[in-house]
Amino acid sequence: MRVVIAGGHGQVALRLERLLAERGDTAVGLVRRPEQAGDVRDAGAVPVLCDLESASVAEVAAHLRDADAVVFAAGAGPGSGAERKDTVDRGAAVLVADAALAARTGRFLMISGKGVDGSPPAGTDPVFAAYLRAKAEADDHVRAHASLGWTILRPGRLTDEPGTGHVTLGPSTPEGSVARDDVAAVLLALLDEPRTAGRTLDLIAGGTPVTAAVRTAADG
Question: Which Gene3D superfamilies match (predicted)?
Fold first, then answer.
């Protein structure tokens, strides 16, 4: 399997790249800065320089040719303002989705976040509200294109604790956290389970083994 990961230097992305490389798949990580390439190589992936805030659909699509799947793992990150929430969390996601359509990629995984649907509650921090709106609009754009073979994964609060290999995964879950290790493991399992296409899934820590949780989500 050849998997292109947008936001290839992100913490979840690097974990997923290692998992793919360990089992013999080819991972390609799109990165914004040349100095990020070394970490991507160390994870066993192929770094490709591509700034998703300035690239065109055609430029991104060229990097997706012959990919079996695309994973959108980019994000403006903590400390960024409302403008970059829009250009990265929304704009870059829309760009990559459109590029995947142009490249006729048959599988698209989107890392989103819990609670992004609906209007932000009154009193929400303006930057966080911008983030919620950006993610919701990006998810809506992806869901409008069934030919992407999309799955939207919405993890709870991310932690750097060691993964347990056990999660709670479904259309709706309680509030909670989840280890980045386990998010990467779920993404890997989703890549192997095309029956999860067309599903939006919440993810938190739990007691079900990852492969069983993904199988149940596909069956449901």
Answer: NAD(P)-binding Rossmann-like Domain
- Residue pair 68/25 in contact by the 8 Å Cβ criterion: no
Please determine, for residue 78, whether its predicted confidence score (pLDDT) is greater than 90. Answer: no
Catalytic residue among 98, 131, 167, 182: 131
The Cα 60–Cα 43 span in angstroms is: 22
* Residue 52 annotated in active site: no
What is the per-residue pLDDT across 120-176, written as a single tens digit (0 to 9) for each?
Answer: 888 899 999 999 999 999 999 999 999 999 999 999 999 999 999 999 999 999 999
Distance, CA of 179 to CA of 74 (rounded, Å): 17
Q: Which residue from 186, 110, 192 is spatially nearest to 145, judged by alpha carbons?
A: 110
